[in-house]
Amino acid sequence: GAGVSQSPSNKVTEKGKDVELRCDPISGHTALYWYRQSLGQGLEFLIYFQGNSAPDKSGLPSDRFSAERTGGSVSTLTIQRTQQEDSAVYLCASSLNPALSYNSPLHFGNGTRLTVT
Amino acid sequence: LAKTTQPISMDSYEGQEVNITCSHNNIATNDYITWYQQFPSQGPRFIIQGYKTKVTNEVASLFIPADRKSSTLSLPRVSLSDTAVYYCLVGMDTGRRALTFGSGTRLQVQP
């Protein structure tokens, strides 16, 4: 079946502009994560959605970052007034409802490579 | 959150068995251990998951000692295509929402 889909795959933007990154999780997956990965580095947690619960935003690096998830499916990560240090690959992952499928593994998309010039 | 420690990098040759060990001294009772593989320009991909003892699938084996303070991912007879970064992840989603990845181990397989 279809995996996690992210768009765009690449985004180049000028410093100060706003960007929106989209994630389509696997159908039926209620948990959705956003991670950031800088060149050659590990994964940095940003935000987590689970069903209708309040999202865990503890990983967002600043108030320029926000995310929403509409209808429990598609998610959008928005970065306002982009800075050069925001350049990274932004990865989205989804998993089954952890309450129903104990410790379901994460399924990742291939990410959006963001370059801020 | 259980913190994990892995070697930064490892080198091997085709056909050899590779063992990557992850330390997680403060693993909680309900935590599972999951390993992911990441190729360049791709998201991480699930390899194997376990709770205790040994788990084997078509790709790898996972060895977990009785105290669960470490785990070892074993890749039999590696090939060039196994060159990737391998992440050990310890935790469970239920009751804790942020799963934290460590820095990973960069495996380089040479001919």
Write the layout of secondary structure elements.
The complex is a heterodimer of chains A (117) and B (111).
Chain A: E1 5-7, E2 10-13, E3 19-24, E4 31-37, E5 44-50, E6 65-69, E7 75-79, E8 88-95, E9 107-108, E10 112-116
Parallel strand pairs in A: 2-10
Antiparallel strand pairs in A: 1-3, 3-7, 4-5, 4-8, 6-7, 8-9, 8-10
Chain B: E1 9-13, E2 18-23, E3 32-38, E4 45-50, E5 53-56, E6 61-64, E7 70-75, E8 84-91, E9 105-110
Parallel strand pairs in B: 1-9
Antiparallel strand pairs in B: 2-7, 3-4, 3-8, 5-6, 6-7, 8-9
What descriptors fit this protein?
heterodimer; A: 117 residues; mainly beta; 6-stranded mixed beta sheet; 4-stranded antiparallel beta sheet; 0% helix; 44% strand; globular; B: 111 residues; 5-stranded mixed beta sheet
User: Number of helical segments of chain A?
Assistant: 0
Average of per-residue pLDDT values of chain B: 89
**Mind describing the biggest β-sheet of chain B?**
5 strands, mixed
Largest interface: A-B, 29 and 22 residues
Tally the beta strands of chain A. Answer: 10
Q: N- to C-terminal separation of chain A? A: 37 Å
How many β-strands of chain B, per DSSP? 9
Shape annotation of chain A: globular
Number of helices of chain B: 0
Indicate the low-confidence ranges of chain B by residue numbers.
Answer: none
User: From the alpha-carbon coordinates, what is the Rg of chain B to the nearest angstrom?
Assistant: 13 Å
Distance, first to last CA of chain B: 39 Å
Class based on secondary structure composition and strand pairing of chain A: mainly beta
How much strand of chain A?
A: 35-45%
Oligomer: heterodimer
Beta percentage of chain B is over 45%
